[in-house]
Amino acid sequence: MKVLKFGGTSVGSPERMMKLLDIINPAEEQIVVLSAVSGTTNSLVEISGKLLKEDKQKALTLINALHQKYNDFVVELLAEGDFREQGQEVVDYHFNFLAALSNDMFTPIEEKVVLAQGELLSTTLYHIYLKSIGVPSVLLPALDFMKIDEDNEPDIPFTTKNLQPLLEKHKGNKLFITQGFICRNSFGEVDNLRRGGSDYTASLLGAAILAEEVQIWTDIDGMHNNDPRIVKGTKPISHLSFDEAAELAYFGAKILHPQSVFPAQKYKIPVRLLNTMEPQAQGTLIAADSEKGKIKSIAAKDGITAIKIQSSRMLLAYGFLRKVFEIFERYKTPIDMITTSEVAVSLTIDFTDNLDAIVKELHAFGSVEIDRDQTIVCVVGDFGAEKHGYASRVLDALKHIPIRMISYGGSNYNISLLINTGDKTEALRSLHNRLFE
Ligand code: ADP
Ligand code: ASP
Ligand code: MG
């Protein structure tokens, strides 16, 4: 069985939705994971923002505008008659529900419920569309088998255990459709896998059913060798190893959710990144092995905060780093990059909710310096121990840009540099010219 995920643009209009059957072969066994129609989750985030601020009027205006968009969507997607009525009922149900939410207390728990509506709408409408043209399919409720624990970690055995009986129940059916992004948390509440999480749903499902392959269908022909939104002339990469893809996703390549590679890697499920607008294009294959000896791609992650702890006490005396890391652990704050010297350690985080409390505790060790608005630029490729010359090419490309931290040798496939976010565009372009042109 395969898992095929279609992103927001791929289901972004009735026309696009109808065209999915150019790619989906209903005669093949597969689970199709759909994102929300593009723009919907952003609108739902905005609506929740208003409701959290108790601006009910503005929220209702936004809800009505989105409702109208879906009314039009239904008219275009479904021919007049029973199926269009069904589609309209579904749309009205979800928007009446949203409007009703604005009458009661609104907390982050309700916010998650609001954010879930996009995927619930897209999958139900697509299911009705398939019915309307006589293509059999089964709609599987992701909230019955996608789950995260108290640390936001997905529970793959839970998914396997709860999905298998559903697939068994509908034995003989081939085409299953489900929602990306949404799940339940350890309290049983509706939750999600963070923005862009439908990719993660696809790879978690791939792992849970030991799929033959996971296909991520999007609006570009695979992972490019630099951010195509910033740099001109980027090119798709035909092969990436799981490790390379994980680094790129984690360090900002938006085409993949940051965590989405890990389940596929752990369960050895190949992942293909493919273009809905150009289905014949080769795309990118992410698998265990990869081409050796090449610089593959450049990515950048914004919103980074650097923390430097300068200590008069022997910094690298044993136990010191542990004490520093324990503080971050206690505040559930992951560290991205780290560099050390005899008298100081610098590290970066992107989750800053607990920064004040962390800094307060770090002061026990010495002085603490904070730099905000930083960007990690990450160069990914095969930099095995016997390789040489790559670091100097990277640094040469960035010789006109102030570098705050450098991390090299942590793995065989990553060189990371911390720069001011204001220098990112120039850094990506300069690296591209030096490494790929
Ligand atoms: P979807 O809605 O299908 O999940 P996304 O917008 O999340 O699509 O991801 C696809 C987008 O990622 C592309 O349109 C592109 O602009 C952006 N992107 C950023 N970095 C890269 C990269 N290195 N390679 C390919 N696409 C990238
Ligand atoms: N709809 C969600 C988002 O916009 C999930 C996804 O598209 O992957 O973030
Ligand atoms: Mg995405």
Automatic annotation (TrEMBL):
Q: Name one GO molecular function term.
A: ATP binding
Q: Which domain of life is it from?
A: Bacteria
Q: Report any one BP term from Gene Ontology.
A: lysine biosynthetic process via diaminopimelate
Q: Which UniProt keywords apply?
A: Amino-acid biosynthesis, ATP-binding, Kinase, Nucleotide-binding, Transferase
Enumerate the spans annotated as Aspartate/glutamate/uridylate kinase domain. 2-275
Q: Which residues of the sequence carry a binding annotation for ATP?
A: 5-8, 218-219, 229
Question: Which Gene Ontology terms of cellular component type are present?
Answer: cytosol
Q: Where does substrate bind?
A: 41, 119
Query: What pathway, per the record?
Result: Amino-acid biosynthesis; L-methionine biosynthesis via de novo pathway; L-homoserine from L-aspartate: step 1/3; Amino-acid biosynthesis; L-threonine biosynthesis; L-threonine from L-aspartate: step 1/5; Amino-acid biosynthesis; L-lysine biosynthesis via DAP pathway; (S)-tetrahydrodipicolinate from L-aspartate: step 1/4
Q: Which reaction does it catalyse?
A: L-aspartate + ATP = 4-phospho-L-aspartate + ADP
Is Iron among this UniProt entry's keywords? no
Protein name as it appears in the record = Aspartokinase
Q: Which organism is it from?
A: Pedobacter nutrimenti
